[in-house]
Amino acid sequence: MDSCIISKEKDGVLLFTINRPRMRNAINFDVMAGLESAIEMAADQDVKIFAITGAGEQAFCSGGDLTAFHQLKTEEQAYGMLSRMSGVLYKLLTLPKPTIAIVNGSAVGGGCEIASACDFRIGKEGMKAGFVQANLAITTGWGGGTILLERLPKTAFRMLLDARVHDAEELMGLGFLDHIYKEDPIDACLSFMKGSLSKETTVLEAYKSLVNKKWEQLSMRERMEAEAAKCAVLWGEEAHHKKVDEFMSKKNKNN
Ligand SMILES: CC[C@H](C(=O)O)C(=O)SCCNC(=O)CCNC(=O)[C@H](O)C(C)(C)COP(=O)(O)OP(=O)(O)OC[C@H]1O[C@@H](n2cnc3c(N)ncnc32)[C@H](O)[C@@H]1OP(=O)(O)O
Q1: What percent of the chain has pLDDT over 70?
Q2: Is the CB of residue 227 below 6 angstroms from any atom belonging to ligand 1?
Q3: pTM over 0.90
Q4: Predicted ipTM?
């Protein structure tokens, strides 16, 4: 089964679906490569907006694949992965067209970072999300903490420090979600983005260039890179290894 699906939907929507539902759409290197390709495809003239979602009913994305990434023990080993994904999220953040995360289920850790890199976030009724990295004795490491601090200046720092999982209504109150939907995820995306999808692509690109100017002036690339480097230091420490070992032993008990 392909780990991700890239599809051209109605009205100029390019949809990237993380397709690992059994692992709650955890991100491995294949998904990273797929997201890089999809971001490049978004440049096609017939694409008006770029959307990301997760396969299945249960999860949008559970962050980094701990079974794949727990082999990364040292700061240097972790930095390679973290830096690569922070580069992907910077490309997503500055993609020259509007982007939207259709948060179709649980979003935790790096899954929240991916959603934060999108211009808009709509969540399925009943979904939950949380920047849980601190519970694993690390920080965000893909640039998502840096982005969140800019998007939600009043609430982001508490969200990161508490590392709690919030329900959809709380996420609306925190400003993380723009809308809660009940219907089919693609219909929900088309309906939420209807106003944009009726405009010329050139206008969407022109407005997104104003947003990207702000990201450039805020030195987001350098700050997201520094976040990856900071996370890599914590990743290499015993406290994090213990947390991941706990996750793996729980997983092995289940299987
Ligand atoms: C890499 C760095 C990155 C960063 O931020 O920089 C990160 O994201 S660090 C990783 C942070 N992610 C987590 O800690 C999430 C762990 N998963 C969960 O909390 C839950 O699975 C949840 C809330 C996503 C879904 O809960 P639910 O009860 O619906 O499902 P299960 O927990 O029973 O999981 C089903 C199945 O999926 C496996 N799984 C889930 N998440 C991951 C993951 N991130 N990596 C690898 N595998 C994952 C889980 O082990 C279960 O497998 P099974 O073999 O069926 O036991």
Answers
A1: 100
A2: no
A3: yes
A4: 0.96
Q: Is 59 helix (H, G, I), strand (E, B) or coil?
A: strand
DSSP 167-218: EHHHHHHHTS-SEEE-S-HHHHHHHHTHHHHTS-HHHHHHHHHHHHHHHHHT
Residue 217 has a pLDDT of 98
Say yes or no: CB of residue 63 within 6 Å of ligand 1.
yes
For the chain, domain boundaries: 4-185
The residue type at 212: N
Name the residue with the closest Cα to ligand 1, atom 20.
Answer: 62
At 1, the pLDDT band (50, 70, 90 cuts) reads confident
Give the Å distance between the CA of 171 and the centre of ligand 1.
Answer: 20
C-alpha–C-alpha distance, residues 166 and 131, integer Å: 9
Q: What is the C-alpha to C-alpha distance for residues 131 and 126, in angstroms, rounded to an integer?
A: 17
Question: Per CATH, is 4-185 categorized as 3.40.30.10?
Answer: no
Q: How far apart are CA 52 and CA 200, in angstroms?
A: 22
Find, among 81, 32, 80, the residue nearest to 52 by Cα.
Answer: 32
Stretch 112-129: mean pLDDT: 98
* Mean pLDDT score, 41-60: 97
Q: Separation of 251 CA from ligand 1 center, angstroms?
A: 9
Check pLDDT > 90 for residue 88: yes
- Dist CA 31 CA 37 (whole Å): 10
N-terminal to C-terminal alpha carbon distance within the chain: 21
For the Cβ of 132 lying below 6 angstroms from any atom of ligand 1, the answer is yes
Distance 247 CA to ligand 1 centre (A): 9
